[in-house]
TrEMBL record:
It comes from Myxococcus stipitatus (strain DSM 14675 / JCM 12634 / Mx s8). One of its GO terms (biological process) is FtsZ-dependent cytokinesis. Residues 1-23 are annotated as: Disordered. The keyword Coiled coil does not apply. Its main location: membrane. It is found in: Cell inner membrane; Membrane. Keywords: Cell cycle, Cell division, Cell inner membrane, Cell membrane, Membrane, Transmembrane, Transmembrane helix. This is Cell division protein FtsQ. Residues 11-20 have a biased composition (Basic and acidic residues). It is a single-pass type II membrane protein. Belongs to the FtsQ/DivIB family. FtsQ subfamily. The lineage of its organism: Bacteria, Pseudomonadati, Myxococcota, Myxococcia, Myxococcales.
Length: 285
């Protein structure tokens, strides 16, 4: 009898297990099917993406046909294409835009560059160049841009006719580039103010901006020195224009014009150029 009871108990346990399995399938089955379906869909998407990428990288539809440039003044498209090793037939999807921009930035005239892919088969390049405003002697002759940055050495083919900024040497620039740039910027501001006055009064072309400590001296193409000292350069340049007009009305030419009187800022002292016959003697004041 005991044997029969054990046998019945085993049958009951098996039936209970079967019911438990069936219940688990009924409750968990939809979730498991969703997971399986999602896994299958993900796999199909990955496979499709791989195949799509392979097709895009091999399709003649995306072969580079043309490159357009904007903003070029000093740099040339030939030079930039050569730097970037950008040629027709390259696949647009395979191009590394960041690498193209970095290589084009190696051109000395290029300040900023933005490369954009224009699907299906074109690339556009927007270039911002340095604007040359002056020259500086830093061991060698360098070009200063509008921010006072010496961005390239002067080469014979540059064809630049710009004022020279002196008073900042290579040692000073290497020791403190930020301070050197600030002095260059100050010199450029004075040069711009001089040019602004030149538009109205047509004075002599500026040849040099000499930075001597805090003092600024301008040298015209004729060799005339205008000693501004320190302070409000625009006001002093307006005064300079009046002095030059007065000298011109009298038929005189100045060798040195002093606008650097610290004690009496409004005063002007002029050293008149000597006639040829008197150059070996004392100059008139």
């Amino acid at each position: 009898m005991a044997f029969g009871r054990n046998k019945n108990r085993r049958r009951q346990d098996a039936a209970q297990r079967n019911e438990a399995v069936k219940g688990a399938v009924r409750s968990k089955g939809p979730g498991v099917m969703k997971v399986l379906a999602l896994t299958l869909a993900t796999g199909l998407l990955v496979w499709g993406g791989v195949e799509l990428r392979r097709w895009a990288l091999q399709s003649p539809r995306f072969e580079l046909a043309a490159v357009s440039f904007s903003g070029l003044q000093r740099a040339s498209r030939v030079e930039l294409l050569r730097l970037a090793a950008l040629t027709k037939g390259q696949n647009l999807w395979a191009l590394d835009v960041g690498a193209l921009e970095r290589t084009m930035l190696q051109h000395p005239w290029v300040k900023k560059v933005e490369v954009s892919r224009r699907f299906p088969n074109r690339v556009s390049v927007a270039v911002t160049e340095h604007v040359p405003e002056a020259l500086a002697v830093l061991g060698e002759l360098y070009v200063l841009d509008e921010e006072g940055e010496p961005f390239k050495r002067v080469t014979p083919g540059d064809g630049l006719d710009l004022p020279l900024v002196t008073g900042v040497d290579r040692e000073g620039y290497v020791a403190d580039p930020d301070q050197a740039r600030q002095r260059f910027q100050a010199a450029l501001e004075v040069a711009r103010a001089y040019t602004k006055e030149a538009v109205a009064g047509k004075p002599e072309r500026l040849s040099e901006v000499r930075m001597e400590g805090r003092d600024v001296t301008l040298v015209a193409a004729s060799g005339q020195e205008v000693r501004l000292g320190e302070g409000d350069s625009e006001v002093k340049l307006q005064r300079l224009a009046r002095v030059r007009r007065e000298l011109g009305a009298r038929g005189l030419a100045a060798e040195i014009i002093h606008l650097d009187n610290r004690a009496r800022p409004g005063w002007v002292a002029v050293k008149i150029s000597s006639p040829v016959s008197e150059r070996n003697g004392s100059a008139k004041q």
